[in-house]
Specification:
globular; Rossmann fold; 4-stranded antiparallel β-sheet; about 270 residues; 10 strands; alpha/beta
Length: about 270
């Protein structure tokens, strides 16, 4: 009998950080356009994975559904075991602001605002006073290597530095999941390499990160690759098929828990 690896056992006994169950997404038309066609996907707490596919494959629609920016037509989206696809708009907004961090190709920084205040904006809906938001923002910027750029404005930063500010904004509220959409798309090769090293470092510190990309070379550098085509998952190098060394778990996290994300989701339920 083949012995299951610790990563496989952990996957079978833990609640996933994020799970898509038979997700269908259609857009109006004659006939309707089916962007996602029965997609099921399980992402464990502490994984680093790439969702990769060409333009029109459905990966951006997957991002929107996973990030609760769009609702599936049918199927379930579960975060920490709860079917958030049934939540109303207010509860979904709370989930999005508390549990999910977004990193986009275009950075989306406010030009007239310092790096510190751009990151502090990520906590606008957390109910914290301005001073505490700025302290948390400074800590996040230090974490991404920008301690020397706190007071700089976006037009005073390089492309790589602006993306670091965007990553700091995504992690400032300690989200359960970081969704990074083409995070190196607007960067040169040196800055791209530095950003990927940063994402690997955040993963090693325990973050759950999904990178959405068309770049197969970039995807191949990550522990797990989920290939999407025509609205379906074509291939998936799931951690359950690998040993621990290549499983995508951070060091020392073979059986992660969900206490922090459960507490945040309970807060979302109460709002």
């Amino acid at each position: 009998m083949t012995k299951a690896s610790p990563a496989t056992i952990a996957q079978l006994t833990s609640t996933p950080a994020l799970e898509l169950i038979d997700i269908v997404k259609e857009y109006p038309g004659t006939p309707p356009v089916r962007a996602l066609d029965g997609v099921s996907l399980r992402v464990e707490d502490g994984e680093l994975a790439a969702i990769v596919g060409p333009s029109g494959s459905g990966k951006s629609t997957m991002l929107h559904v996973m990030g609760t920016l769009d609702r599936p037509t049918t199927g379930q989206l579960r975060i920490d075991g709860r079917n958030v696809s049934e939540f109303g708009d207010r509860r979904l907004s709370a989930v999005r602001s508390q549990l999910i961090g977004f990193v986009f190709q275009q950075f989306f920084l406010i030009d007239g605002m310092s790096a510190l205040d751009n990151v502090a904006n990520g906590l606008l809906y957390a109910g914290l006073p301005t001073a505490k938001r700025r302290v948390a923002a400074a800590e996040a910027l230090i974490k991404v290597g920008l301690a020397h750029r706190l007071g700089h404005f976006p037009n005073q930063l390089s492309g790589g530095e602006r993306q670091r500010v965007a990553i700091a904004r995504a992690i400032v509220h300690d989200p359960a999941i970081v969704l990074a959409d083409e995070p190196t798309g607007n960067l040169d090769s040196a800055a791209s390499e530095a950003i990927m090293e940063l994402l690997h470092g955040l993963h090693q510190a325990g973050s759950t990160i999904l990178v959405i990309t068309h770049d197969r070379e970039l995807a191949s550098s990550l522990p797990r690759q989920i290939s999407v085509r025509d609205g379906r998952i074509e291939t998936d190098t799931s951690p359950s098929h690998s040993n621990d060394a290549g499983s995508g778990w951070p060091a020392g996290k073979s059986a992660p828990g969900h206490t922090a994300s459960s507490q945040l989701l309970n807060r979302a339920n109460d709002e």
